[in-house]
Amino acid sequence: MAGVLKAPGAFAITPHKVSVCVLVQIYASPSQISIPFPFSSVSQHNRLGLYLLALTKSCDDILEPKLEQLISQLREIGGLLDHWLTDHLTSRLSSLSSPDDLFNFFNDMRGVLGGPDSGVMEDDQVILDPNSNLGMFLRRCILAFNLLTFEGICHLLTNIGIYCKEAISSCSSYELRRLDDSDIEVFADPKSEHNDKGRESSSYSSSGDLLRDVDLNGGVFLRTNWQIQGYLMEQADAIEKDGSSFTLNAFELTLRQLQKLAPELHRVHFLRYLNSLYHDDYFSALENLHRYFDYSAGTEGFDFVPPAGCNSFGRYEIALLCLGMMHFHFGHPKQALEVLTEAVRVSQQHSNDTCLAYTLAAICNLLSEIGFSTTSGILGSPFSPMTSVGTSLSVQQQLFVLLKGSLKRAESLKLKQLVAANHLAMAKFNLTHVQRPLLSFGPKTSMKLRTCPVTVCKELRLGYHLISEFCCEGSTMTTDGAFSTAWLKNLQKPVGSLVLSQDNSSRDNSNPFLFCTQPSSIPGSVLQLVGSSYLHRATAWEIYGSAPLARVNALVYATCVADASSSSDAALVHVKLIQHLAVFKGYEEAFSALKIAEEKFLSVSKSRILILKLQLLHERALHRGHLKLAQQVCDELGVLASSVTAVDMELKIEASLRHARTLLAAKQFSQAAAVAHSLFCMCYKFNLQVESATVLLLLAEIHLKSGNAVVGLPHALASLSYCQSFNLDLLRASATLTLAELWLSLGSNHTKTALTLIHGAFPMILGHGGLELCARAYIAEAKCYLSDPSFSVSDNPEVVLDPLRQASDELHVLEYHELAAEGFYLMAIVFDKLGQLEKREEAAASFKNHIMALENPQDGEDPLSNA
């Protein structure tokens, strides 16, 4: 039957491949000159070669292009030769009217290839290397033709006829009048309607439209297995990068139709699993994952190298790894840990060291992201990776052992990308954990219970350098296919049509290095690791307290690798930059940037952008005194942190912290202290020590404002101790400021102590602190001077007024009414002592305005729906 779809596992000769062979013969004509006819320059000759190379490797679709699409592309790259190329191509195809013509055609193809049988060659003779990409393609075409039966050759002739007739039917009436005696020459306008429906997009939509129009009795052919696999890999990368850009039903329809056309292509099931996974369809994802491993035994589409001497057990361990990651994605941490532990057992039994290394890395990621107070009963099985050291260790110690083991195993297997990822994981662990002795007996060596920023920086640098060696693990299908696809896409872009416009007589010399200007061929997974390195650096500087360095690394990420990053990582960078704006520039600029981010990222449940919006709304509501709105936002955060959808410890802590701050603003001190104490117990249970420092500081604030300064002192000192251990410099400065406020509230006898503490924290606060922290420090300094019996306002009033004015300006940007009212109250006292009654009344009026704003907040529009 004419037009029958070829199996993707076989390399079948098709009309499109015959057309490419014709073009290859033009490119590598066995002439006696270095620039064969009809080319007039080396760049013109090279441009056709680059096009042919891209055509044989592109992964932009699963169907071979038709003749009119091929001619349209030739017009973009042919330059002044586009008419000659299309005329020669169509006339050569029309001349193939009998089996003998095909035999003679492929016999001529042998002369294009070089080799030991090609005889003596001249120095400037053009001969195609048989081992080159185009040479291999030509050899496969010749072999596929030689394997055809006579009936198959007749089918090929019929298909060539259909292939040419479809080109005629797509021509406009004007173009038909221009046809010559060959009866199939096509001079299609590259801007014609059918060209606009070309292959500019490699997304599911273009292939889906083509597949919906597939006629099994027409001249439609699937591309080579290599190209189809490359297309599916590109779609998988695109889904993992930004699954929300794929419409669930539309892409599902495309995959189902592809499955009908090539039922033996089991990787389609894996794409259906990914599509369901990133659209949160649990049951469909589970079903398709089971189908994929049932049909393919897990060997199709994975880059894991089979271990030497490994028996084929269906790659059950890989299926378990995928299932565990699926449970992790859907927020089932316990099931994920159980499945991954089983994957460790099976990998060990089957001696699959590579899968074992990836599984250990997945367990490490799970333990670091999800809160576990204990793993007993899960990691204590006979095949558990923790069996050798026992399970009496804390979860954090078990995580450290697993990280070291995973890193060592990845290094021994020379899995450089996994080694780099493990270095980043080690940096993240060392950032928030103090390394303690794993053994509770034997001689003890003295050690400082502190984190080491040098170690963190070292791990980050090691990971970054290893990423640069990606070429040892790079997939040629990924790099070559993506590179060729991008090159063909750029033929359709306006800039290409301008550079190669027919109206430009010098277009043959223009843009000769078009192929070199394509996007980088670095795999997307490697670029994501590079981005993760900068994200970790930004997070590290945030924790250590250097806002400028955190912002710089976030900007580097957003500028250099945002296009290759996943949507979640890109959203995280936007969150960091917007938070920086809120802290240092105020809410107006932050909400303006948030509006842009909301247009780029969908504010779905639990998205980082939605959480950021709630955080900003809560902070602004507290500053304005909108306690009802603040509580409403807290309730929204509490819903997102619900354990029904998953236990996100970071979000749960955030919701509890904001609940306690709302109660504190409402002067419900006992309830606020109870919430904060419960939160500290949870942090202690899960060994979240950095978070514990923040909660202790909150408890100190609560006791300060409730008038129990003596009770608050131990909490402030404990928070300082945590900050010193984990090098939390900015939080340490904030804790020092709170400690000074506590000392000051104990009476005027402690003003010197408080002032010394404030001045000691000033360099860090003024250099790296935000508007609110700086304003607090200024007001606390002024209060210390005013509370000191030995200080005379009349002798040096500017010592007090300057910091109060600075605080006033910064609090005005934040709309922080309570703290601003306190500042104007102090200013009124100073002006009263100086006898400046007019300025005193101005300060008093400002004080009253802020008090009234606190007592009568105007909620206005619903900010939860419109920021």
Helix content: 55-70%
Question: C-alpha Rg, in Å?
Answer: 34 Å
Number of helices: 38
Assembly annotation: single chain
Would you write up a description of this structure?
With 867 residues, the chain is mostly helical. Among the domains are: 15-116 and 125-171, no CATH class; 770-866. It is 65% helix and 0% strand. The chain is built from 38 helices and no strands. It has helices at 15-27, 42-57, 67-77, 82-94, 99-112, 133-146, 150-169, 173-177, 193-196, 204-212, 225-241, 248-261, 267-277, 282-296, 316-329, 333-349, 353-369, 395-412, 416-432, 453-467, 476-490, 494-499, 524-544, 547-560, 567-584, 587-600, 608-624, 627-640, 649-665, 669-685, 689-705, 709-725, 729-745, 751-768, 771-787, 798-814, 817-834, 837-855. α26 (587-600) runs antiparallel to α27. It is elongated. Residues 1-8, 172-182, 184-218, 301-313, 387-391, 438-447, 471-475 and 494-519 have low confidence and may be disordered.
Give the helices and strands, then pairings:
Blueprint: H1 15-27, H2 42-57, H3 67-77, H4 82-94, H5 99-112, H6 133-146, H7 150-169, H8 173-177, H9 193-196, H10 204-212, H11 225-241, H12 248-261, H13 267-277, H14 282-296, H15 316-329, H16 333-349, H17 353-369, H18 395-412, H19 416-432, H20 453-467, H21 476-490, H22 494-499, H23 524-544, H24 547-560, H25 567-584, H26 587-600, H27 608-624, H28 627-640, H29 649-665, H30 669-685, H31 689-705, H32 709-725, H33 729-745, H34 751-768, H35 771-787, H36 798-814, H37 817-834, H38 837-855
Keywords: Cell cycle, Cell division, Mitosis, Ubl conjugation pathway
Domain Anaphase-promoting complex subunit: 269-368
Family: Belongs to the APC5 family.
